[in-house]
């Protein structure tokens, strides 16, 4: 069965410091991975997906199949990055559509 | 476009009562997903529906839970005879199609169900 692990419930960093939110996955097929973010009092929204190889709000994430990891990184944390971050793995459903398996989330707190 | 709308935001029920959670997808979206988040856990897939059809309900508990997405109106997640363990945040998400590679999934704000 597929599984997503985010080992840290809370990560606290100072503004300007580098950020790395850890995510490890377990999946037998070719994984499609995402990072979702939930800012305070806002809805869960897509931050980035590995197939796009994009940088959003300064965040990047590289899929490492050897280590089965998809860590989220940002070189310099900003106060507005404080939020809950969820790593998720997508699986195609038999009848169509996609099912996401989420990690338990990491609360990022950026302190001044 | 107001996005995915869920109501109510908070729902309190006593054990044994029924809970009905509603989800109106984004305009033009005909694909709806329901997820449940228990305390201290990640969101877990429950069911995937298209208009008038349940496509995949592999994440739904076998008893007491049902979902529908009628031709007209919102999608409904129904929980009969609620128990304390049903207390959770229930999220709905919608997409324009069956979520091709570049398609986005849009989430609602969730309904927090509390069972007394």
Which shape of chain A, going by the Cα principal axes?
globular
Overall shape of chain B: it is: globular
Q: Give the beta-strand count of chain B.
A: 11
Assembly type of the shown chains?
heterodimer
* Helical content band of chain B: under 10%
User: Roughly what is the average pLDDT of chain A, rounded to an integer?
Assistant: 92
**Total of DSSP H or I helical runs spanning 4+ residues of chain A:** 0
Give the uncertain stretches of chain B in residue-range form.
none
Alpha-carbon Rg of chain B, integer? 13 Å
Helix content of chain A: under 10%
Q: The biggest beta sheet of chain B, please?
A: 7 strands, mixed
- Share of β-strand residues of chain B: over 45%
Average pLDDT across residues of chain B?
92
Distinct helical segment count of chain B: 0
* Rg over CA atoms of chain A: 14 Å
């Amino acid at each position: 069965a597929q599984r997503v692990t985010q080992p840290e419930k809370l990560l606290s960093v100072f503004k300007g410091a580098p950020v790395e939110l850890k995510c490890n996955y377990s999946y037998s097929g070719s994984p499609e991975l995402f990072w979702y973010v939930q800012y305070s009092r806002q809805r869960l929204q897509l931050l980035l997906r590995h197939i796009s190889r994009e940088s959003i709000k300064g965040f990047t994430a590289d899929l490492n199949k050897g280590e089965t990891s998809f860590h989220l990184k940002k070189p310099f944390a900003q106060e507005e990055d404080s939020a809950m971050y969820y790593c998720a793995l997508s699986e195609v459903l038999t009848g169509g559509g996609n099912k996401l398996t989420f990690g338990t989330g990491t609360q990022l707190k950026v302190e001044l | 476009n107001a996005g995915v709308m869920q109501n109510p935001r908070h729902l309190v029920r006593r054990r044994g009562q029924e809970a009905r959670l509603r989800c109106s997808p984004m305009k033009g979206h005909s694909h709806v997903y329901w997820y449940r988040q228990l305390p201290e856990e990640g969101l877990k897939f429950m069911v995937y529906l298209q208009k008038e059809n349940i496509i995949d309900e592999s994440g739904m508990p076998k008893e007491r839970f049902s979902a529908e997405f009628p031709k007209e109106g919102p999608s409904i997640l129904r929980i009969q005879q609620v128990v304390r363990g049903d207390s959770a945040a229930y999220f709905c998400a919608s997409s324009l199609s069956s979520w091709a590679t570049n398609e986005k999934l849009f989430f609602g704000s969730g309904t927090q169900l509390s069972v007394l």
